[in-house]
Amino acid sequence: MNGLHIRPAGDRALLLIPAPGTLAGLVDELRRHPVEGVRDHVPAAETVLVTLDPRARVEVVEARLRQLAETVATGGAEPADDLEPVLVPVRYDGADLAETAGLLGVSEDELIARHTGAVWRCAFLGFAPGFGYLESAESGLSVPRRDRSRTAVPAGSVALAGGYSAVYPRRTPGGWRLIGATDVRMWDPRRPEPALLRPGARVRFVREDA
């Protein structure tokens, strides 16, 4: 059994609750192998919402989704190395860099090396347009949010919190730990696709001289 739970979400949507450790693979499979009758899929931290075409037969879509989940659970999914990572140059001069390194018990250079050495995956978007929650189990950079949020975090701030990294797409309040900054625009309404990242996208941070 693949452990996938499927719940109705209104008339034309399904909420997928994958088994632990399989959500990322399921999202990648949905991207590579679109399911007929599925209009869109929206990942979150532990679930995926799929919206359906009005003409789709729900039981047929459910069966196909379970097949994809089974492929992931049994290790039959394709390796997720077919996406070129988005390169994000970073000036590692954030206000919380030293404190964050201390929380992790490493030097600032070691923190930076871990941040740039990992391939990060966009798990989902949320909080603000273009704000991608980036995960990387290999980085070992899980730190808690700040006790008190800042009233304004500048656009382009690179941050860590709760096992994720992110780039603030615009000036906004925030409680993540700031380790650097980038000039890359994560959200630009003038682009055909305003959000630079989509769920499943890979990201590599590159150290840039301040």
Summarize this structure briefly.
Helix content is 21%, strand content 30%.
Describe what this molecule looks like in 3D.
Strands 5-13-6-7-10-9-12 form a seven-stranded mixed sheet. A four-stranded antiparallel sheet has the order 1-2-4-3, covered by helices on one side. Strands 8-11 form a two-stranded antiparallel ribbon. The chain has 210 residues and is an alpha+beta fold. The protein contains four helices and 13 strands. The N and C termini lie far apart (51 Å).
Sheet with the most strands: spatial strand order: 5-13-6-7-10-9-12
Uncertain regions: pLDDT < 50 for 5+ in a row?
A: none
- Inertia-based shape: elongated
Beginning-to-end CA distance, first to last residue: 51 Å
Structural class: alpha+beta
> What is the percentage of strand-forming residues?
25-35%
Percent of residues in helices: 10-25%
Q: Spell the H/E element sequence.
A: EEHEEHEHHEEEEEEEE
Q: In this structure, how is the largest beta sheet organized?
A: 7 strands, mixed
Mean pLDDT: 91
- Computed over alpha carbons, the radius of gyration is 18 Å
Number of helices: 4
Secondary structure: number of strands:
13
